[in-house]
């Protein structure tokens, strides 16, 4: 009877550790991908870490896949702190959300600006570099 109890306890422990290790590896892959995207877009990854924010089922390529959302923070000019999100399905990135410049409203335009009414010009924040 003692052997069955020990075996049950060992199996239960393995059932907890295996998914935890899988999530740890997935988080490491997400961190690597966020670092690559920050370099690509000229952003600074703050705290050098990502955190799991959400998990959902999503149909990708005709198959139902588990998709994980990781949140992180970046800086555009070194003086700010902006949030971003990375969606991972399997081992690959399925979505990315990075901070953008603020839109100038039509009321903020100088008089006689000359732009058509259906155009909303972009203006960077003071001292901001381009993302591209």
Automatic annotation (TrEMBL):
Q: Which superkingdom?
A: Bacteria
Positions of region (Disordered): 107-132
Q: What is this protein called?
A: Uncharacterized protein DUF3301
């Amino acid at each position: 009877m003692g052997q069955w109890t020990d075996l049950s306890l060992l199996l239960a422990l393995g059932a907890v550790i295996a998914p935890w290790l899988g999530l740890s590896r997935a988080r490491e892959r997400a961190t690597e991908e966020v670092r690559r995207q920050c370099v690509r877009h000229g952003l600074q990854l703050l705290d050098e870490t990502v955190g799991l924010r959400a998990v959902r089922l999503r149909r990708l390529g005709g198959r139902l896949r588990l998709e994980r959302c990781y949140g992180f923070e970046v800086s555009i000019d070194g003086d700010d702190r902006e949030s971003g999100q990375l969606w991972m399905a399997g081992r690959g990135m399925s979505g990315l959300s990075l901070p953008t410049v603020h839109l100038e409203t039509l009321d903020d335009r100088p008089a006689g600006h000359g732009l058509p009414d259906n155009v909303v010009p972009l203006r960077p924040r003071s001292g901001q570099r381009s993302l591209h």
